[in-house]
Amino acid sequence: MLLIDFPVDKKTPGDGVVVGHGTINGKLVFLFSQDSTVNGGSLSEKICKIMDKAMLVGAPVIGLNDSGGARIQEGVASLAGYAEVFQRNVMASDTSFLFVTGPDVVKYVTNEDITQEGLGGSKVHTTKSGVAHLAFENDIDALKRVRELITLLPSNAKDTAQREGFDSPHREDEVLDAIIPDQQTI
């Protein structure tokens, strides 16, 4: 079935998105994962609903995006949900891409040759567009690092984060006196 051929009037079991909640190192998290084999992994209301549930209890959301895009049969309104979903992102280098239209369409319209990475890869989105905050070597590394991030977060959005020992901001250190020389000519 082509991406543009899936019927919008027919409900698909699961709607191409798996959602749930669980714990990572004892901290509650909510998750969603798009299934690109069902409706092209296109955006589902389930994603926004799981985000709403997480917000009610102050828990973080981890999303695994694997989608061919919006359900264009539903019109421009189908794009609105992406604003809610893509406020915070990390990407895996060389395997994650995000763009409105692919390199083939860009080539057809502008006669410009561009790769998926050059058009919407992790480097573009972590250094230029700001769509993603971090890039990792691969999916496994990204998941490991997200787990580490979760352990740094408080158990609830209303709680304060745990802090490890730190120096007093009012401390004095005589070593700093040696940074600037007494004589300005040196």
UniProtKB/TrEMBL annotation:
<keyword id="KW-0812">Transmembrane</keyword>
<dbReference type="InterPro" id="IPR034733">
    <property type="entry name" value="AcCoA_carboxyl_beta"/>
</dbReference>
<feature type="domain" description="Acetyl-coenzyme A carboxylase carboxyl transferase subunit beta">
    <location>
        <begin position="10"/>
        <end position="94"/>
    </location>
</feature>
<dbReference type="InterPro" id="IPR051047">
    <property type="entry name" value="AccD/PCCB"/>
</dbReference>
<dbReference type="Pfam" id="PF01039">
    <property type="entry name" value="Carboxyl_trans"/>
</dbReference>
<dbReference type="GO" id="GO:0004658">
    <property type="term" value="F:propionyl-CoA carboxylase activity"/>
</dbReference>
<dbReference type="GO" id="GO:0005739">
    <property type="term" value="C:mitochondrion"/>
</dbReference>
<keyword id="KW-0472">Membrane</keyword>
<dbReference type="InterPro" id="IPR029045">
    <property type="entry name" value="ClpP/crotonase-like_dom_sf"/>
</dbReference>
<protein>
    <submittedName>
        <fullName>Transmembrane protein</fullName>
    </submittedName>
</protein>
